[in-house]
Amino acid sequence: TVRRLAAPDIAARKGGVPIVCLTAYTAPMAELLDEHCDLLLVGDSVGMVVHGLPNTVGVTLDMMILHGQAVMRGARRAMVVVDLPFGSYEGSPEVAYANAARVMKETGCSAVKVEAGPAVAENIEYMVKRGIPVMGHVGLRPQAVMVEGGFKAKGKADHERRRILEEARAAEEAGAFAIVVEGVAEGLAREITEAVSAPTIGIGASAGCDGQILVTDDMLGLFDWTPKFVRRYGDIRGEIAKAVAAYADDVRERRFPGPAEIYFAKAG
Ligand code: KIV
Ligand code: NA
Q: What residues make up the catalytic site (predicted)?
């Protein structure tokens, strides 16, 4: 049996070999990614990537639990972290704890992630003190899309840089074992990485972080548009289009199924 990586293993990787992370939403994909990744995030990006929602605001706790369960069935060695969705952790420490505990009990995951805005540090501390490993997420915070009016890179203005650095410090002081840093300029990503003792996991945040994460479907090339910070390591979209077109042709021309793909009645 393989031992699954846990929060202290990830925390100990500060400044070492970069931590390899990807998102996962389903069991078969989790099984494939597990071999290569240290950490799999069941991101609330599942709402946009899988369910066709315009942003992550509509994602529910039940959706996160279903996908968390699926990923846990596929992953063996990687640490699995489940995003707490919008509205499930901001209101009070008690509500955050109850929802996070439910996610951990019902999925078997090892930690939760929260978007660590200024109001949330207290809730992180409350959860960590009661046995829930928490990952923070600062910089571009997708759940704040409605107050921001869109998804915009962060930390271009001085006051914003200071605020994001403060949010990262607050998340670490509250006990976060790692911090996702999203959509910030390289200088700020390096500043945060130096300022906190928890490893930083970058997305659109330069190679100056202690690890990297991408939305798996983005890096596999499932969508025809991807943000600037995504490198496409595959062309899944093209592969699927080719395969489906070939299948459709074969069906219409009665080339599928062929002799090797049908059942025969027993002789006699
Ligand atoms: O929901 C998500 O996929 C995320 C990461 C990309 C960090 O939060
Ligand atoms: Na997320």
A: 182
Longest dimension (CA), the chain: 85
- Yes or no: say if 117 and 141 are a contact pair by the CB < 8 Å rule: yes
Residue of 31, 182, 186, 261 with catalytic role: 182
Cα–Cα dist 133/23, whole Å? 18
Nearest CA to ligand 1 atom 8: 43
Give the burial string for 112-126 (b: 16+ CB within 10 Å, else e): bbbbbbeebbebbbb
Q: In terms of Cα–Cα distance, which of 24, 215, 2 is closest to 107?
A: 24
Q: Which residues are registered as beta bridge partners of 181?
A: 138, 202
Do the annotations mark residue 45 as ligand-binding? yes
219-231 CB burial, b ≥16 within 10 A, e <16: bbbbeeebeebbe
Residue 191 designated active-site? no
pLDDT tens figures, 178-231 = 999 999 999 999 999 999 999 999 999 999 999 999 999 999 999 999 999 999
How far is it, in rounded angstroms, from Cα 116 to Cα 123?
A: 9
With a 6 A CB cut-off, is 213 part of the ligand 1 pocket? yes
Q: How many domains does the chain have?
A: 1
Give the domain range for residue 101.
7-234
What are the tens digits of pLDDT across the range 33-90? 999 999 999 999 999 999 999 999 999 999 999 999 999 999 999 999 999 999 999 9
Q: Is 205 touching ligand 1 by the criterion CB < 6 Å?
A: no
CATH code of 54's domain: 3.20.20.60
